[in-house]
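User: Alpha-1,4 glucan phosphorylase, Hespellia stercorisuis DSM 15480:
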Amino acid sequence: METMDKETLKEEIKKQIKYRFRKNIEDASKQEVYQGICYALKEMIIDEWIDTHKKYETLDSKMVYYLSMEFLMGRALGNNLINFGAYKEVAEVIEELDAGDLYHIEEEEPDAALGNGGLGRLAACFMDSLATLGYPAYGCGIRYRYGMFRQEIENGYQKEMPDEWLKNGNPFEIERPEYAVEIKFGGHVDAEYNENGKMYFVHRDYESIQAVPFDMPIVGYQNGVVNTLRVWDARPMHSFDLDSFDRGNYAKARENKNNARSIVEVLYPNDNHETGKQLRLKQQYFFVSASLQTAVKKYMQRHDNICGLADKVCFQLNDTHPTVAVAELMRILMDEYGVEWEQAWKITTKCCAYTNHTIMAEALEKWPIALFSSLLPRVYQIVEEIHRRFTEEIKAFFGDDQDILSRMSILYDGQVHMARLAIAGSFSVNGVARLHTEILKNQELSDFYKLTPEKFNNKTNGITQRRFLVHGNPELSDWITKQIGAGFITNLPELEKLTALADDKKKMKEFAEIKANNKKRLAAYIQEHNGIEINVNSMIDCQVKRLHEYKRQMLNILYVITLYQEMKENPGKKYCPRTVLFGAKSAPGYERAKLIIKLINNVADTVNNDKSIKNQLKVVFIEDYKVSNAELIFAAADLSEQISTASKEASGTGNMKFMLNGAITIGTMDGANVEIVEEVGRENAFVFGLSSDQVIEYEHNGQYKAIEIYNENPKLKKALDSLVDGTFIKEGEDKNLFQGLHQALLYGQHSNIADRYFVLADYDSYMDAQKQAEELYMNPEEWNRKAFLNVCHAGKFSSDRTIEEYASEIWRLKSII
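Assistant: Predicted structure for Alpha-1,4 glucan phosphorylase:
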């Protein structure tokens, strides 16, 4: 570390603890030591943070604003230390101060509750890569007080608890009240005329919320670049009504404060009721409007002509959540800067770019017109006009075809279709894996592709090796550095150099020992958190991701049930020892997904307590899956479950993290699995299941009959019937608890088609792939070699490569390094 020697650093840490907590370091708690280190590091980061933004201003750099509802950052301390080049020095300083060890100090940091799944983790990886590559960027989101939720498992059920990640403050953030902006909701809009007879619009009787930014540093890897993640907090414009308080109406006195706070309480409030829908739309407009107002104002402080905005600013819309940006930018340009419609539209459509993360209709957001227009009256007027003009464009190209209009209209069937608004108002529309982009172009968005093919492009997702290898798997990272140098930390394709070692038995033994050590580390975590002792020599078989039916945790647990039933039938037979590990949160209102969590836990309880199978199978559900425990899982995993229904997973990034850490993929040809298998070779993965074309064909022709597969397959029938025969029902539970899961797979439920995600169709193929995995695992040398080749061929899947493609092909940014 060049900026501060160890003795100076020791003094700085002691000083921070002394002045913040009125304690000497020897009396400080681990939490206080953690805070002291963070504040000491922040002192050093801030100089580079200031210098970076001065450089952007001096160069008048074009800036990308990455607008996302989620930024699943993980813990900041370890990542910042690695990127700042101070990890080993700080670890030594902590030991020399007799203040514990850095690993346990890091445990004091809660994961920032700013995201949930792959979408948010991708945004975090992108921020890391943007800084490491020296590209000017702001991440823009919401400073959630409780995020998604902290998951507890109680009697097998998911229980949602508040995630109080800010309880002890966030030492790396800086509040920026000087940049607060006003956000307006509700009210009505009046058209008025100025002295020249020009119409303008006045928003009246609205509710006012103040958006206050908090900035967090995003440290580039040892390059002096520090970018900013700006998350917005909501405050009332007038926080306390003294008059109401004096009259004894205490609730009314605090009403404004409570209304504002509700906007930033939780990520994705349950929206299966009207107030939840309204709150979710409020959240989206809140952070989008705050971010856009600030970006345009910042541009205008340095430039005279608003018409040049697109030369210096790009707004990347991460999925449909921030796509109200299209209409909001039009509002700002016209109402606040007096730009005429045609010019404003020209600017907007050169500034906005849209990333699509899903082909699933239910995830492409739609808002009831009545809700949208009452909450955002002026923005809705603009959406109406965009819709009118876009409809004319569609008719001019396709003719007056009502089927096409129903698929493309922004306003249709009483709803505002946000993905359609985004496509109409953006110059770029990208998918996140090659297969996903092709499905968008040829199936889901084919009409839009025909209209404007030049907009569509692919940007296959990636992950940051700084967190998921250097920090998450330090033993493997250090070993790789000894073999080929540290170049892979900023140039992941250098891992290809390792392939020369695949036939070196000594090196492969070292590689296997690292995996064994990581398994012990994970086993200790499971023992501590689950009270389950796992066999560290067993195959660690992992499916960790959001709980959703298309990701098919159901297929995995059916395999576990089948395997368990086979073990019961063959008590003398020796099986490949296996630990099946699940980690997943379900959305609070997603009842079937929550029931699958209960099923997994009931199966685990039965299997883990059955002595007759001699510990050959264990099932573990990791409570509160998040970035920090994910790092332990990726490093220890042998088998990576990527088993979504082909055509449904846009990309996936967990598949890349497992690959990078030496796990072998068992998966369908879906999302980025296709490209992973291309890179590593089909012989180094376990591929199964229907293709995306076969799934799409089944969906279109309606010929799929789940009940026939069930009736013709005795193993499958036995596994499925165990859901309703009481095998996995605990004492005192309703014997029909899992009837709904059984029903949905065989007959459909609530007017859904039976087995919507083709679990039964892929069952046999999945069983065969699992058999292959077992047989290979029983040959440790061959397994180890294939696992190692997965690491060697992971180079394509760095978010650095993805960001280089965005920067050169969409954003047109210039690096400052």
